[in-house]
Specification:
alpha+beta; six-stranded mixed beta sheet; five-stranded antiparallel beta sheet; 8 helices; 21% helix; globular
Length: 374
């Protein structure tokens, strides 16, 4: 008897081992709407009058801290968890409400769990055909083989999940999710278990598959960069509510509040008092329109774009106290007179700038953010 061995994971090269793009089966995308949804677990409110609407075919990333309610949104939409108040609709049908709970298998929604939830005793082919029983055996196998081929596992259909690497198990879980061609696809932290080397390539191929299905997609993540790269829109959650939802660019450029800005990016913060429609910071003046004199505000400066750093030239004098470089990027901490903490600046690798050097900083006031003090 011959046995198949686990192959080395080759997901580290973009597209390697995946099937041909454009070959994923197409779904009939569905609209998804949460209307004032409240969901409790053990008496604790997890979703607090949540409102969220997805249009057919769009990809929305749910972004937030652990415990903010991201995974619960998926479980409610999938029909795994009931709601205590409010309504969930798929297209025009009410699928969840107090006293109404349409079963998961009748919702046309596919959920890929964070731990993949593969069946260890079933072959890869049987894992994928598990949700296709309504098609009949021959058609189920045909559709399952198509999904396995798209994710590059068509030569492994007789193997078992334990024979796969982490990246390949993720691909198997994705194949099982897309095989029934659901109108809604939901992924719960799909890349959290992958190492940094393969995460980018797997993420890119997964996004390509989702686009090919045309399905409406919800992706849970706690990584702001990942959310901004994958989502048509990004929904920022806090304590069971959406505090902001918009395109990645708009969410980044205009965070809803200081807490949102802190979550999306590291910040250097300067406490100031408004005077004559502006604040005077150690890096220069920043206009504060629509704020009264005497108001206390926080000037939030992000590492990219808000400050220009040069070895010499006009600007505010600073001194490099720390420098870390990786992948063509330098992250410098610069001490400026009048600031309690060094300001962090991220810039293209510059070998002429070293720790201990005096540098010139110029503030780009049109890019900095102004918030009320906490």
């Amino acid at each position: 008897m011959t046995t198949s061995k686990t192959r080395p994971d080759t997901d580290t090269v973009a597209g390697q081992d995946w099937g041909t793009r454009g070959t994923t089966g197409v779904s009939f995308a569905a609209a998804l709407n949460f209307e004032n949804v409240v969901a409790r677990l053990g008496g604790k409110v997890i979703l607090d009058h949540l409102n969220l609407s997805l249009t057919p075919g769009e990809i929305v990333c749910l972004l937030g801290e652990s415990g903010s309610g991201k995974s619960t949104i998926l479980r409610v939409a999938a029909g795994i968890q009931p709601v205590d108040e409010g309504i969930v609709r798929i297209n025009t049908e009410i699928v969840s409400a107090p006293g109404i709970q349409v079963p998961p298998e009748k919702r046309g929604a596919g959920l890929m769990f964070q731990d993949f939830a593969l069946f260890p005793h079933l072959s890869l082919l049987d894992n994928v055909t598990f949700g296709l029983a309504q098609l009949g055996k021959a058609e189920a196998r045909r559709q399952a083989r198509g999904a396995l081929k798209r994710v590059g596992l068509d030569g492994r259909e007789a193997d078992f999940p334990h024979m796969l690497s982490g990246g390949q198990q993720q691909r198997l879980a994705l194949a099982r999710t897309i095989a029934p061609r659901p109108g809604i696809i939901m992924l719960d932290e799909p890349f959290s278990g992958l190492d940094a080397r393969m995460r980018e390539s797997v993420r890119g191929e997964t996004l390509a598959v989702l686009r090919e299905t045309h399905a409406t997609s919800l992706i849970v993540t706690h990584d702001p960069e990942e959310a901004m790269l994958m989502g048509d829109r990004v929904a920022l959650l806090r304590a069971g509510r959406i505090v902001q939802i918009d395109t990645a660019a708009k969410v980044y450029q205009a965070p809803a509040d200081l807490a949102a800005a802190r979550f999306l990016s590291p910040l250097s913060e300067i406490a100031c008092t408004v005077s004559n429609g502006a604040v005077d910071t150690p890096l220069g003046y920043v206009a504060t329109p629509n704020r009264r004199d005497g108001e206390r505000v926080i000037i939030a400066i992000r590492p990219v774009g808000d400050v220009t750093l040069k070895r010499q030239g006009p600007g505010t004098l600073g001194r490099i106290v720390s420098k870390r470089g990786a992948l063509g990027i330098d992250i410098c901490e610069v001490l400026v007179e009048g600031m309690e903490r060094p300001i962090r600046v991220r810039l293209p690798a510059e070998p002429t700038i070293q720790v201990g050097h005096d540098v010139s900083l110029r503030l780009n006031p049109e890019h900095v953010l102004v918030f009320d003090q906490d």
